[in-house]
Amino acid sequence: MAKITYIEFNGAEHVVDVKNGLSVMEGAVKNNIPGIDADCGGACACATCHVYVDEAWKDKTGSQSAMEESMLDFAENVEPNSRLSCQIKVTDALDGLVVRMPQSQH
Amino acid sequence: MSEPGVVIVGAGHAGGTVAALLRQYGYEAPITIIGDEPVAPYQRPPLSKAWLKGEADAEALMLRPLTFYAEHKIELILNVKVTTIDRAAKTVGLADGKSVAYDHLILALGSRARPLPIPGADLAGVLFLRSAADAETLKAAIGPGKRLAVIGGGYIGLEAAASGRALGASVVVLEREPRLLARVACKELSDFFQAYHEARGVTFELGAQAVAFEGADGKLTGVKLADGRVIPCDEALVGVGALPNEELAKEAGLDCSGGIVVDTHARTSDPAIFAIGDVTHRPLPLYDRMFRLESVANALEQAKQAAAAVTGRPPPPPEVTWNWSDQYDVKLQLAGIAFDSDDILVRGDPATAKFAVFHLKGSVIRAVEAVNAPAEFMAARQLIGSQKPIDRAKLADPAISMKEVAAS
Q1: ipTM entry
Q2: CA dist., res. A91 & res. B313, Å (int)
Q3: pLDDT at position A76, please?
Q4: What would be the CATH architecture of the domain defined by A2-100?
Q5: Do A47 and B46 make contact, defined as CB atoms within 8 angstroms?
Q6: Which of B11, B71, B190, B274 is deepest in the core (most CB within 10 A)?
Q7: Does B331 touch chain A (CB under 8 A)?
Q8: Buried-state track B117-144, b at ≥16 Cβ within 10 A, e below 16
Q9: Which residues of A touch B159 (CB under 8 A)?
Q10: Residue contact A34–B24, C-beta within 8 A
Q11: Residue B64 and residue A32: Cβ atoms within 8 Å?
């Protein structure tokens, strides 16, 4: 279980508990947090679950896969700390994780 | 008495999503979802993919956890069919005799597997794949040593074939047309998938029309083809397309034409009634025509349109339609539709299992079929939407990045 803080582009914060094994994307969708669309349900097929991982958490959340990198290459507003949240699996080590959302997923 | 609010008929991907979006958009009146399956809205795409292979559980399938509906005051009425719409009284009638009033009605009725009207279709072992219950039956039926015949070489059939192989079954695909994916993909893609499946042990009978299911003691034993041969099997999965569940709307006098006719706001011919998802015959502004789509992306787009219209928000910008398929380790991503295209261009080598087929109208990309080629897919999605002409020589050269192709 990890407590994850999702921060919308407008600054609205949502702090929720997410079970181990779910993805950071699923944690948002299952709690109806706006700003993460996740159109494909986690198949790494759509790039609509784009988030920015807070600097302090970059190591613990791992790095982009080749597929993810290619998808993000064409997403809007990509930064060095951009990730597709469907590709980050939740573990106890991510307790306290903070992710921010881009202006738009499309 | 409080206002009746929104009633959503159909608890699938579209129905569940529009309810959630209405709450996200600040809608405060009651929301009721009525579904004829016994379970809350879930995702159908994994049923032929990860779920069938045992890589996703029932909880992962759920669109939202059950607690979500209570927390957001969305009433779920499950396991009951809506049988009538009384447009004058603004109520829907349920099979159990109850009636539910609405201010806005959203029809998210989905589609159903097209039946195969040949003798023997009622034998045990003749299966379809549409619902979680169907998937449960299929999963229980296939395994090591089992012989699965898939009728229909479309996406559902091929995904099930790949999952069947992963579970250790022997798989034969019977396709009426001379090639796979004949109605939905170009020949390059058909050839690629046929070879990829064959290399993983699937056999194909192309140009093969099933004329009867044969059985013994009420149980399937084989599929008889038009040429007289019988393909022996333990289970047959019928995947020959889908039909829109438009009857309820038709009987209520709403315009239907191979789907419920809607506008770009997902509104039907009755301004108080919307329709979304597989069941609609909808405008595609980018292609200047009406069409019926079967995809999650379509369900989501129309859910956004309907939720925006009900809450008085501006409509979402038109999206480029897209879809995907997972087979073995291949990720196929599709964007746009190949309407009006006059040429195709293959970027990359199909033999490497990483390539993309672009459908062009002049120098404008109308559609793409991308195999393990996410950059091509993402770039094409943008270029299809913007209709910006591209340099065909650059597009054809995989050494030139899609960034550069898109920028030029």
Answers
A1: 0.86
A2: 38
A3: 84
A4: Roll (3.10)
A5: no
A6: B274
A7: yes
A8: ebebeebebbbbbbbbebbebbbebbee
A9: none
A10: yes
A11: yes
